[in-house]
Amino acid sequence: MGVWRAQESEWNPSQGVDQPSRWPLIAAFFGAALFIVLALAMAAVVYYGDRFMPGVTIEGRDIGGLTRAEVTATIRQDIAQRRAIPVRLVASDPFLGESSL
Question: Whose CA, among 36, 45, 59, 95, lies 20 to 30 Å from 77?
C-alpha cells in the first residue's frame, strides 16, 4: 500500500477560487467579428444591387459601378468599333501559292 504524504506549498490567494472562463469572451469576439463581416457584405449588396462590383472588367474595359444597361451599351459600342476594322485573310498553300481573300 502507498503512503500518503502532504506536500507543503506556499499560500496562493487564488487557490480554490474558480477563475472565470474565457470562452464567453472569445465567442463574443468572434460573434461580433462575424456580425461586422456580414453587415459589410449586406451593405455592399444593397449599394451595388443594380450595379457591377468594382474591379470587374470585360476584355480589359472596366465596367465596375456601371448598371446593366450601361454595360450593354458599352459592349455594343465596342463591338461596332471592332466590326468597322477591316480584316485581311491570307491563305497559303505550298502548291497553289498565296491567295488573299
Answer: 45
Instruction: Confirm whether pTM is higher than 0.85.
Output: no
Specify the DSSP element, H or E, that contains 100: strand 97-100
**Residue 86 dihedral angles phi and psi, to the nearest 5°:** -70, 145
pLDDT digits (tens, 9 = 90+) for 41-67: 998 888 878 888 889 998 888 998 899
**Residue carrying the nine cell digits 450595379:** 51
Collapsing DSSP states into helix, strand and coil, what is residue 45? helix
Residue 50 to residues 58, 65, 71, 72, 99, Cα–Cα distance (Å):
17, 9, 12, 13, 51
